[in-house]
Design a protein that fits this description.
Layout lengths: L2 H15 L10 H8 L3 H13 L3 E3 L5 E3 L1 H12 L3 H16 L2 E8 L2 E8 L14 E3 L4 H10 L4 H9 L2 E4 L6 E9 L5 E10 L5 H18 L9
Antiparallel strand pairs: 1-2, 3-4, 3-8, 4-5, 6-7, 7-8
Helix pairs in contact: 1-3, 2-3, 5-8, 6-7
């Protein structure tokens, strides 16, 4: 492909990247402004993108992302391993807080620590991947239960708040905070958790943990691989 062809691909990709959560539909002029391209260039490239299903243009003359992007996105998600997405988030949580970060899923009356990154501190709450813990105690267990028992008032309170903090519930020396990890379809995929020695988990540490967990959970929504349902 020559330089002109490469330039055309780059410009076409710029048009697609101009769309986002806050800009799901745009006029020709808006695309031109967002990409710093001439209207004539946008119109020519948009016609090619529309012909191949990457863009659609409705009766309102607005351009929107096309079904081919959805197909490619679904292929990407199916080929992505959950751990490839979760592990980097856990490492960032450990770096931000210095505490042990974990990802739990429900399994009957238990929860399984599917992925974890332990705190680098010598005194820490140490977990192993594959470890099973009760689902009715501890921050992650409470979050998982809240989404399983939708009619329970306590579960509704957790869902409304978007997090749960436990102080010595399962182990008198351990405290933890957890948030739900919900995918783009609204399905609960598990619980992200930070756990620490209780004496270290004061009010400031709890706030830092909850804020970090919520931030990571929000960032992960669009990256999660498709569920098997």
């Amino acid at each position: 492909m020559g330089k002109t062809g490469v330039d055309a691909v780059g410009r076409a990709l710029a048009i697609l990247k101009a769309f986002g959560a806050e800009r799901t539909a745009m006029t020709l002029t808006e695309i031109a402004v967002a990409t710093d391209l001439y209207k004539s260039t946008v119109l020519r490239l948009a016609a090619s993108l529309e012909a191949d299903g990457f863009l659609v243009r409705g009766p309102d003359r607005l351009f929107r992302p096309g079904p081919e992007l959805w197909r490619l996105g679904a292929l990407y998600q199916r080929g992505l391993d959950l751990g490839e997405v979760i592990r980097p988030a856990l490492r960032r949580l450990v770096e931000a807080t210095g505490e042990t970060a974990s990802f739990y899923v429900a399994d009957g009356d238990e929860r399984i620590c599917l992925y974890r990154v332990n705190s680098p501190r010598s005194v820490r709450h140490h977990l192993e991947e594959g470890q099973r813990l009760p689902i009715d105690r501890g921050a992650a267990g409470r979050v998982l239960t809240a989404y399983r028992e939708s009619s329970d008032p306590a579960g509704k309170k957790i869902r409304d708040r978007g997090f749960y903090v436990s102080i010595g519930e399962r182990d008198p020396e351990v405290a933890a905070a957890a948030v739900p990890l919900v995918d783009v379809h609204g399905k609960l995929r598990g619980a992200l958790s930070l756990s620490a020695i209780r004496t270290r988990f004061d009010a400031d540490a709890r706030k830092t943990a909850v804020d970090a967990l919520k931030s990571e959970a929000k960032a992960l929504v669009g990256l999660l691989p498709a569920s098997e349902e």
